Amino acid sequence: MNSNRLVLTGEVTEVAELRYTPAGIPLISFTLKHTSQQTEAGMQRKVECEVPAVAMAKLAEQARGMKPGTMASVAGFLAKRSLNSRQLILHINELEIIEKG
Fold first, then answer.
1. How far apart are alpha carbons 15 and 28 in whole angstroms?
2. Chain centroid to CA 12
3. 15 neighbors 30 (Cβ within 8 angstroms)
């Protein structure tokens, strides 16, 4: 079985305007900044990353009110940004807004 699932909690740092696909599906892009302590090779390591994400349909409507500083927990899958891109983007399947920014 092939697995592609990412669960991440972090702070929203950028939010684009809600837009619509050619098929009329609402879509919103945002960036999630994650900071934590993780164990690697038996040692603690500080981890920081910024992950571009996209939410569609009902989740896009839910994310519409997010502003920079909002804390959120998300789950989804990674895919290329576009057919010819090598950059990854997180496609959100689950969104929980923890606190408003």
1. 8
2. 9
3. yes
Average pLDDT, integer, range 60-77: 95
How far is residue 27's CA from residue 44's CA, in Å, rounded to a whole number?
37
pLDDT of 101 reads 61
The β-bridge relationship of strands 88-99 and 43-56 is parallel
Mean pLDDT of the chain: 94
Q: What ranges do the domains of the chain cover?
A: 6-99
Secondary structure (DSSP) of 13-39:
EEEPPPEE-TT--EEEEEEEEEEEEEE
pTM here?
0.89
| CATH number of 6-99, picked from 3.40.630.30, 2.40.50.140, 3.20.20.330, 3.30.70.120 | 2.40.50.140
Per-residue pLDDT tens digits for 4-49: 999 999 999 999 999 999 999 999 999 999 999 999 999 999 999 9
